[in-house]
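Support reply, case 0932

Customer input (verbatim):
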Amino acid sequence: MKNYLLIAICMVSLAAHAQLKITPICPALSVDVLGGKVNELPINSTVGQVKLKLPCFSSAEDESATAKCGGGVFFKDKDLYFFTERDYIEIGPNFKGKLSLPLMGAARTGLFKWLGHPKIKDVNWDAYTTEYGLMILYFTKAGKINKIQMTNRSPEMIKLCDEKL
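Our regenerated output:
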């Protein structure tokens, strides 16, 4: 009888520790490149705001002096990165979502119709003035856009992350 009671207690104890984990589902990602928002989240969103609105992130790091690149929320599988302490959003070439302008893969020579003249030109990138601040477009050797960075900081104040996440 004692053995049956012990087995029953063990089974109840094991069942109490089992948990169902819910896989977070994100809405489709939509980037307003002229307004500087991802799913209505502005560039200066906090880690908590991004995690709440887009719970399907692959990793997150609170803002701190020891955090890699100052902290942020990262969607590696979607090639989208919120650098919250540095106030910029980065969109890579494998971005899974919708851009308000079809910039990814667009030719450098065809941007004037959407963006006008760049504020700053370089061999590998151009920076455009926007309503939120600055949009930096990076180009392949063939002159096609392969990375977009949106920031509310001035060119003198922006601090980009060079580390691989």
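We compared this against your earlier run and they match. Two observations from our side: The helical segments are 2-17, 47-53, 112-115. The first helix runs from residue 2 to 17. Please reopen the case if you see a mismatch on your end.
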